[in-house]
Hints:
The complex is a heterodimer of chains A (133) and B (386).
Chain A: H1 3-8, H2 10-15, E1 17-20, E2 27-28, E3 44-47, E4 51-60, E5 73-80, E6 85-90, E7 103-114, E8 119-128
Chain B: E1 4-11, H1 22-37, E2 44-48, H2 62-69, E3 76-80, H3 86-99, E4 106-112, H4 119-126, H5 142-157, H6 165-175, H7 189-194, E5 197-199, E6 202-203, E7 213-221, E8 234-243, H8 258-271, E9 280-282, H9 288-297, H10 306-311, H11 328-331, H12 339-352, E10 365-372, E11 377-385
Parallel strand pairs in B: 2-3, 2-4, 9-10
Antiparallel strand pairs in B: 1-7, 1-8, 4-7, 5-6, 8-11, 10-11
Helix pairs in contact in B: 1-2, 3-12
Amino acid sequence: MEVSRHWRLRQQRYALVGEVCPHCDVKIFPPRDICPDCGREARTEYQFSGRGEVYSYTTVHDAPAGHEAYAPYTVAVIRLEEGPMVTAQLTDLGDQPIEIGTPVEMTTRKIGEDGERGMLVYAYKFRPVLRPA
Amino acid sequence: MREVAVLGAGQTPVGEHWDRTLVSLAGEAALEALRDAGLDRPDVLIVSNMLSGVGPGSQLNLGAQIADWCGLKGVEAFKIEAACGSGGAAFRAGVHAVGSGLVDLALVVGVEKMTQTPSTVTTAGLATAADADTEAAHGPSFIALNALIMRRYQHEYGWKHEDFGAFSVNAHANGALNPYARLQQPITHEDYREARMVCEPINLLDSSPIGDGAAAVILVPAERLVPGGGRPRVVVAGSGAATDSLAVHDRRDLLWLAAAERSARQAFAQAGVGPDEIDFFELHDAFSIMAALSLEACGFTERGQGPRLGLEGAILPSGRLPIATQGGLKARGHPVGATGVYQIVEVARQLWGAAGDNQLPEPRVGMAQNIGGSGATILTHILRIS
């Protein structure tokens, strides 16, 4: 059971908190302290909006150990509207077909359990943006 | 740097070796390579492996364990790990060791034992090649990461799934003639189109099979080998290595293997050749999309045009750039940490004229490219007759 790992990641997983580079203004997610674009120090926190679109997606049927209970599930690469891409599961899909370019928004869901005592691990997933009826 | 030559090689069949331990597989390949080279003892044993430290019954410190098993007690030995690129990385470490003059005889052995754990554990082990916190924690299998790339690739360039079939058909045709291959059955284009979907758009026949196996080569200073004695002298003409972001989503361009381009350029520059002078290419076709991306990044075709080399027949043994000449990862099999050494063994045997039923007519320059993760660590080697 990796309590400190999940605690350490809580800001990015629960709230999509990343960084912004003070030198070149590139938005960074997940936080990494060094700007991947200009290579300089970037420790300024930045709150992402949680909105983005599907860049690519697939469905996992043969899940890795620890994820079997959730299979099948849809995994996507999301391009956040601020620029960075993230890998996350899609949820709340209903009957709606997913396509490349589908607008999505962040939500918080359980992504697994850690250890025999079943510590619940929560993180971001993304769902299609609700359209007005 | 001294020029480095490949003197001997050994390999076990790739398969489900339920009756064999990891060390016995490694030992068989290592001792065969020593015998093949006519040597008793190397100065250093470099092991490549990815998964021995993952899951139940895990074992590390493989260098000492395998050296002891081989009767090489006392020799310098250690392991190199770069996920599925471990074999290429270990081979390059051997080139460094001999090329620098620090040692004269290096034995590089790649070994993997994958069929003794349940498939979910193996799948989780393979996912350790991805970023633990931002990729693996969210549940994509290693296949899923490649599926994400392939779907976007098809979206951008308009290729249909069946356009990738030539990679698998060619690999299986060559694997059918390789007694060391995991899968020795030819397949048809119809088989490819109708194969079970595994992780859309990747189906079963886009995917390489895992397996148990070991492969080994001996590296020596080229100056010690007098040309003309027996088989041709094969030297390491170029060696390149580069990395990219571990997480696929962090790449500047998800559809371009930047580390393949960079490492291939290094190897081409060292060898003083370009893509047109490569006679055959053992590439990392873990999934058919990776074959396409590797061909593009190395400059064998233009961006987005990888599948065309398959459709035109250029990749066949009779084509202008034969690939996967012993079956590739797709049919020879993908014992992950050993794969990069299998590729080197296959290139050397082609150049020695010892490739059996898959022998190409008098090849002189061969290339191998080994990929760790879905593009994160990439090693490119060019071997040639000298």
